[in-house]
Amino acid sequence: MMGSPQGLPSPGWIGPGEHLCLAFDHDEEREPVLAAFVSDGLAQGDQVIYHTDVTHPAVLTGLLRGWGVDPGRGAVPAPRSGAEPLRVRPTSDPCGLRVEGEVGTVTLPMFTAALREAAAREAGDVHLDVSGLVFIDLAGLRTIVDVAGGLAAPRSLVLSPASSHVHHLITMIGWDSAPGLRLSENDL
């Protein structure tokens, strides 16, 4: 087996142009093998493509860096096809917004405007229901943190539900303690 981060076993027997399918029961089982595989491929100058239906590119990049693998400046997520449109709806109980679909380059201006309008309209906390959000890029996450930071204390931007991938991303990036941002502990 080839060298890998932190001495982890790696699939060094995979040759150029060959494919690997990794079946796993939980993330703790997948992550070390994935990190070693990507590290070996990059070290050999290979192009590494990771297809998944559940792992957001920002999560993957953070995971790799956590295992000591630098995906490098050339790491670009594959273009998204079949992107879902963004739908933003005001909510009254609790007051705020429900977002559904995807927040990306095309939909970011609409998302930003709606979130800023909700923050200006509401006198108390602004609740952001992301249970219907299937994708959000780093700029969208930054918008959430920026709007939260612009709220005067004691107001907060409350992100719900607690089980969302958006919670996971914000926590992994380290923005969960950003001023004005509160991650809900309960689902709406």
UniProtKB/TrEMBL annotation:
Top-level division of the source organism's lineage: Bacteria
Q: Which InterPro entries match?
A: MlaB-like_STAS, STAS_dom, STAS_dom_sf
PROSITE patterns attached here?
A: STAS
Indicate the transmembrane segments per the record.
none
Q: Which Pfam families match?
A: STAS_2
Q: Where is the STAS domain?
A: 97-188
Name this protein carries in UniProt:
STAS domain-containing protein
Q: Which organism is it from?
A: Streptosporangium fragile
Q: Tell me the lineage of the source organism.
A: Bacteria, Bacillati, Actinomycetota, Actinomycetes, Streptosporangiales
